[in-house]
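agent> Task received from the user: take the single chain below, predict its 3D structure, and emit structure tokens. No templates, no multimer pairing.
agent> Plan: (1) validate residues, (2) run structure prediction, (3) serialize to tokens, (4) report one or two observations.
agent> Step 1 OK, no nonstandard residues flagged.
tool_call: predict_structure(input=
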Amino acid sequence: MLLMKIICPKKALTVKNPSVGFTSGLSSYLRVSRMGWAALALLSSCSTLPNSYEVRLADHLSATGAKMYGAYWCPHCMVQKDSFGGAANHVPYVECDPEGFDAQPELCQAEGIEAYPTWVIGGDRYLGTQTLGKLARLSGFEQPAVRDEEPATSGGYSVPE
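)
tool_result: status=success, residues=161
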């Protein structure tokens, strides 16, 4: 494993496992495979515009108490986070696998999370990947959408083994 430090203008990324997502931090380190493919994917997140639709929606979801429960190994969770583009670090994400970065498996167990991703918005549960437009509607976000396209695997979810 290589250890890399990635600094973006106005933000730093802290990632243990590239498929887990991004969290803000003062310094950041990324463990990547020998191939380094994850570093290339992460560098693309440096181009997020601060007032983009995706950032505003993710911030709104956080402010309203919405949560996305997932696991670092879940392909549907990766698709969901990718739908936010470079704003993935703003998504109110809870890692449920004990081996994931910043894991909170006890919270996931207490919430009864059995499949990933599971969104909890306004006390209601939504299983599987959701479009940004649907997340906006469910959470009461009323700003105009830049896009409302379906993720590649809309509605898909993963069940832990």
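agent> Step 4: summary for the user.
Helices lie at 37-43, 53-63, 75-82, 105-110, 132-139.
agent> Done.
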